[in-house]
Amino acid sequence: MFKKKLLIIISVAMLMGCASRFVYSDKSVPIKKGVTRYHLGKVEVNLKLGTNGEKGENDTVYFSQKELVQEFTTDLKKYLKEYNIFDSTSSGLTLSAEFDFVRNFNLLGKKALNIPHFSHIISVKKGNKKVAYYSFTDYVINYSVVRNLKITASLSGPEDEKEDIDLVCKEIIEELKNLGD
């Protein structure tokens, strides 16, 4: 009986792993899972200073809003290429992204990063027509024990912010590659 329940749970988990979080809102535009290619369009990032963040402080240490746009753009494009779903032309489907990035600092010293908060709206369009979207608000990355200890000890810095952006972009493109029929 236990083995049967375990098998059902594992099967459901595997099936859930294959589905995409994207909402495929216009099925008149065909999208083939893992085959359809996407041109990377506009990427916007709204940087907000959260807990213990003060404007002016750390401005030269951490990414500016403009640099964040470049980081997100670079990482999204990297994973589109890695999963072989990048379209260098703008003749097909276009992926656009808008991120809210809340940079938080630890209380001690106010220079070490605390856990950032992210929100995003990812859109897939054919011309001006929205075909699919993926929206997720106010989420954090589930870190390893080592990374959590680093944050607690106020040792998290700019290199960790770069890693966070990379992880978010990888997750989004993994979801995108599972979009479609």
Overall description:
- The chain is built from 4 helices and 5 strands, in the order H-E-E-H-E-E-E-H-H.
- By secondary structure, it is α+β, with helices and mostly antiparallel strands.
- The protein has a 5-stranded mixed sheet with strand order 1-5-4-3-2, with helices on one face.
- The protein is elongated.
- 22% of the residues are buried.
- Residues 1-18 have low confidence and may be disordered.
Short description:
The chain has 181 residues and is of the alpha+beta class. The chain has helices at residues 2-18, 65-82, 145-152, 158-177; strands spanning 23-24, 38-49, 93-103, 117-126, 129-139. The protein is elongated, with a radius of gyration of 19 Å.
Topology:
Elements: H1 2-18, E1 23-24, E2 38-49, H2 65-82, E3 93-103, E4 117-126, E5 129-139, H3 145-152, H4 158-177
Parallel strand pairs: 2-3
Antiparallel strand pairs: 1-5, 3-4, 4-5
Helix pairs in contact: 2-4
Can you give the mean pLDDT? 84
The 3D shape can be described as elongated
Structural class of the secondary structure composition? alpha+beta
Strand order of the largest sheet: 1-5-4-3-2
- Termini separation comes to 35 Å
Strand content: 25-35%
Q: What share of the residues lie within helices?
A: 25-40%
Q: How many strand units?
A: 5
Low-confidence stretches: 1-18
- Order of SSEs: HEEHEEEHH
Query: The biggest beta sheet, please?
Result: 5 strands, mixed
**How many individual helices?**
4
Q: What is the alpha-carbon Rg in Å?
A: 19 Å
